[in-house]
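User: Let's play a game. I give you a shape written as tokens, and you guess the letters that built it. Ready? Here's round one.
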């Protein structure tokens, strides 16, 4: 059993946005995709396909495009 595993269990992680959490990219709240957390779900706001991972969906996130629009008001 490998102690160091590339596939982190996001779904049961209580430490949201804590140190060590991998994000999709700098400035994004979305989780980085992995083998167990593929980016294969549509955004619930704009409907763009393959924008969210199951971990993102679990937290009720929307895609970066919608998040930016919500934050910037456009
Ligand atoms: Zn969206």
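Assistant: Ready! My guess for every position:
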């Amino acid at each position: 059993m490998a102690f160091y595993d590339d596939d982190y269990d996001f779904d049961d992680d209580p430490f949201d946005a804590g140190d060590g959490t991998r994000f999709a990219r700098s400035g994004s709240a979305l989780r980085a995709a992995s083998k167990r957390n593929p980016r294969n779900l549509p955004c619930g706001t704009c409907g763009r396909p393959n924008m969210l991972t199951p971990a993102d969906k679990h937290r009720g996130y929307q895609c970066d495009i919608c998040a930016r629009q919500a934050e910037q008001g456009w």
